[in-house]
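@here heads up, posting the sequence + SMILES for the zinc ion run so it's all in one place. Ping me if the SMILES looks off, I pulled it from an old spreadsheet.
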Amino acid sequence: MKSSAMRFLVCPACKSDLEVDVCSRRGQEIIEGSLTCAACSVKYPILGGVPRFVSAGSYASSFGFEWNRFRTVQLDSFNGTKESERMLEETTGWKEEDFKGRLVLDAGVGAGRFAEVVAGKGGEVVGIDLTDAIDAAYANIGDRDNVHLIQADIFAMPFRKHAFDLAYSIGVLHHTPDTRAAFDRVADTVKKDGAFAVYLYHRYGPDAHSTDIIRTLTTHLPLRIVFALSVLAVPLYYLYKIPFLGPVLEMLLPISLHPNWRWRWLDTFDWYTPKYQWKFLYPEVFRWFRENGFVDVEVFDEPIRMRGSRRFNHLADRYGERDRDVVQEDIAPEAADTGLGGWNGSPLTPARA
Ligand SMILES: C[S@@+](CC[C@H](N)C(=O)[O-])C[C@H]1O[C@@H](n2cnc3c(N)ncnc32)[C@H](O)[C@@H]1O
Ligand SMILES: [Zn+2]
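bot reply: prediction finished. Complex structure tokens:
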């Protein structure tokens, strides 16, 4: 943990300031110590360089297992591709100039594949994760000057109000027990004139449900068993490439067809293990953006990749906090009138130019 994180960290329980107690350091990193709330006296440990506001992964423990076994597979710096950089841009539309010098939240950072890209583009990125995936992220990118990694829950984040210029959450919110509530929480970390981007699963077409039946079994199996079974995706890939036979197999038993064998194994494990895996339609996510005070909501390519810019703070009004520097009148009338009645949910803006 870096001391500079103290400027945005607060107690998740009562939102008061924290006091840091350092037991050991490595360079600028605080490796062991604690954060104590000045108001409610709750003490949060700093262990292995990471401040811990939650103790275990709870419902998301499959991800802790996943990212510690496949720690480096999806990191551009390890696999020599630009796949994560491309996916981040396709989901957010943000480029280097958008990230430079901005404070950016990665909600559900996993092993840190996107946080690495943001840091490389000059953003100061704060990655949070509920599980010990945060230790995988810390091993990957924790030593970078502009990276902060924190074990915390999206539903109880340890941040000052509207702390972030930009926030994104890629492949995360649909794995929480209440995606809409999680969306609201992340949206509320964004300051006025900031922006928020998400990647969510969709439920258009039969393909969207192809893993549902098998998941009813695999989500109840021990993780080690699914880990061992999903390695079968590595050789099966070649069978799935056979014309006519491949598409039938894909319908019966979907596996990842990523050309990198480790990635294929990871993705297949990732599809079959999470406890929650909700799916959405574009209009409902569009409404979530609007109800949280976002305008200029843009839709990128599938699954569901959308972003919006914040013009007022809906949650502050809902909870009676009356943030008068962020008011609804800021919304351009044409944006406020936007509706999606009758829209069938097709993407409006392709992500690739
Ligand atoms: C499919 S992974 C995606 C990780 C990363 N965004 C990526 O795309 O590589 C979902 C991540 O969300 C995290 N997660 C799930 N629920 C969370 C919560 N309530 N708070 C913080 N992180 C959460 C999981 O632990 C997991 O690492
Ligand atoms: Zn407190």
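MO: The chain has three domains: 1-49, 53-203+279-353, 206-272.
MO: One more: Residues 319-353 have pLDDT under 50 and may be disordered.
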